[in-house]
Amino acid sequence: MMKRSRMKLSLLSTAFIGLMLATGTAISCEVFTLTASFLPCFDQNTPDPADDTFIADFTTTFAAPPSTGDIELVVGGQTFSTSVTGLGTTFQFLSVPLPADGLPVQATIRFSADPSCTLTETVGTAPAACSVGLPVEVAVDIRPGSCPNPLNCRSNGVLPVAILGSATFDVTEIDPATVRLAGVAPLRGDYEDVATPYEPLVGRQDCRIDCTSMGPDGYMDATLKFATQDVVAALGTVVEDGACVVAQLTGSLRESAGGTEFVGEDVIRIRCKGR
Description:
- There is one protein chain.
- By secondary structure, this protein is mainly β.
- It is built from 2 helices and 16 strands.
- It folds into 2 domains: 2-125, Sandwich (Immunoglobulin-like); 136-271, Immunoglobulin-like (Sandwich).
- Strands 8, 10, 12, 15 and 16 form a 5-stranded mixed β-sheet that branches. A 4-stranded antiparallel β-sheet has the order 4-3-6-7, with no helix packed on it.
- Strand 6 and strand 7 form a beta hairpin.
- The longest helix is centred in the first third of the chain and has 22 residues, at 2-23.
């Protein structure tokens, strides 16, 4: 329907020009249409949605443009222009970069030599940002209340792990089905205030000092149990007696809470002697 309407408008504008020429009536500049087509969002190969862009092509039709000056496109706080020399009654501004912010795109066509010859249109809605943001860092405590955090590689029991809540992180918004410790899903989980967050949240290396035995802090924590042998198998060749291993926990919030991905780390001291 839109294509047919544009065609009808173009035919009417052509007929209008012909009528004016035939009757000898002076023709004043007039812009009839301004349309655009959009390419998909491009993430600039970064995780930052603020730099996401897309490319737009703009097409405009008009009559009796000025013989001097420029035709200008104003869009997204930018102005693009070209000389009217050799201009017909249709022109395209191609490959115009714009922010991919999901907002309506308003554009204006104007002629620098005739300020009254202008048209402003909302030509569509920009694609939404498409970058996948960096995961949010969260506090993780393996074996809450213990420092260092031992893992008996011969144990057939469970490894307790807590994702720690805070004033800015509500653990009840976590989607339990997405949680993984070294790629291993938990056997079960619950909610209980068991520990206090400890910096740094990621980048821990030293099993002697990069851990905490601090207890409850007044914020609810997500308490999880993992099969020890599944974690040992996932850690693979790094499991040897006395080794200090960094275990990474990943997951995401429920879709109703935004679906944001998160990541946290803690260090484990491997024990393989005895049971």
